[in-house]
Design a protein that fits this description.
Layout lengths: L1 H5 L6 H9 L3 H12 L3 H14 L7 E6 L6 H12 L7 E7 L17 H4 L4 E7 L11 H10 L4 E5 L16 E6 L20 E4 L7 H17 L10 E4 L8 H17 L2 H28 L1 H15 L5 H12 L7
Parallel strand pairs: 1-4, 1-5, 2-3, 2-4, 5-6, 6-7
Helix pairs in contact: 2-3, 2-4, 3-4, 3-7, 5-9, 11-12
Length: 339
């Protein structure tokens, strides 16, 4: 009897939708868990919730924060969060992405504990998510999580990426403003000489200004500015700034937030803010089509029937991978007639 009483009935889809609309963090967390689940019934429920939440999403500014491990992303986010929340109209959601083990598939999910002050604030929602081995520095469900946070009334969304280097460019398909953090004196500023993450940065911040020597800071700032001048302009109306910041004494934090607001104003004036959002939606739509087509393809009975046999022929060098792939695809999709 005690066992039956201890079992909690899962909230209904409608209850979660109502809870999200009211800004209830518990309902938001449960909905995000459904989004991140691999169970088909959970995914179906998540899609129903997402569709229902679209009408009451708030206007938001999405900020991606990236940089190498140890650069101080979590401490900068906490300092930036305090500045953002000086405006009582703001509600902040922080989505932290943790690397997943390629063997155990587990992740540490520890960023929440490194933002102690923000965690205690009622107008802040912090959600750690595993990367699930997803390249690009984000979680495969980050975009859907952002939509749910906006539906719950969070008008500033910060996405902290894994911090693994040049592969993190997929964050550009999810956020409006990308802040790249560089640590002086450790060789990380050399990343500014490469393409990839540097060319999609909308601002660069050299961290730990309270600890580094003046010469080291000046060298890092100068390197970043020189590198940015070599990059093609991401937007014709915007030139990325380079800031010296410290989460300890607050240096440059207010300027960073104002720069993000100025960025939104500048792009909106040229109709580029919405254009970028539309491009993101187009990319997300096509990504989901490819993802669902791939899953449906491998579930097809003819594919299951012939996949192992064709794999064996390829391993025995009796068939090229190209021909094997073509044969397998033609089991499901009839070849197009010649033009």
């Amino acid at each position: 009897m005690k066992q039956n009483r201890s079992k909690r009935r899962a909230p209904t889809t409608q209850a979660l939708i109502r809870g999200i609309e009211k800004g209830q963090r518990g309902a938001l967390s449960k909905a995000i868990t459904l989004v991140e689940s691999h169970r088909p019934d959970h995914r179906e429920q998540a899609h129903t919730i997402l569709d229902a939440c679209l009408p009451f999403r708030c206007e938001s500014l999405r900020i991606g924060i990236t940089g190498p491990p140890g650069v101080g992303k979590s401490t900068i986010i906490e300092a930036l969060g305090d500045t953002i929340l000086e405006d009582p109209a703001n509600k902040l959601a922080v989505l932290t992405i943790d690397p997943s083990s390629s063997r155990s598939k587990g992740s540490i999910l520890g960023d929440k504990s490194r933002m102690e002050k923000l965690t205690q604030r009622s107008e802040v929602y912090i959600r750690p998510s595993p990367s699930s081995g997803h390249l690009g520095g984000t979680s495969p469900r980050t975009h859907e999580t952002i939509l749910l946070c906006e539906a719950a009334g969070y008008n500033v969304i910060i996405v902290e990426t894994v911090g693994v280097g040049q592969s993190e460019i997929s964050v550009d398909d999810m956020v409006d403003f990308i802040l790249l953090l560089i640590q002086p004196g450790s060789g990380d500023e050399l990343q500014g000489m490469k393409r990839g993450i540097m060319e999609i940065a909308d601002a660069v911040a050299v961290t730990k200004a309270d600890q580094a020597s003046r010469q080291s800071m000046q060298h890092a700032v100068s390197s970043c500015r020189s590198a940015l001048q070599l990059m093609p302009k991401k937007y014709p109306c915007w030139s990325p700034h380079v800031f010296e910041v410290s989460s300890m004494n607050g240096k440059g934090i207010g300027e960073l937030w104002q720069n993000a607001l100025d960025f939104r104003t500048a792009l909106s004036a040229h109709n580029l803010f919405d254009t970028h959002r539309h491009r993101q939606l187009d990319h997300f739509f096509k990504t989901l089509i490819e993802e669902q087509l791939k899953a449906a393809f491998y579930r097809h009975p003819d594919v299951r029937k012939h996949l192992s046999g064709l794999t064996a022929e390829i391993r025995q060098n009796r068939l090229t991978p190209f021909s094997g792939a073509r044969q397998l695809i033609e089991k499901v999709i009839s070849p197009l007639p010649p033009r």
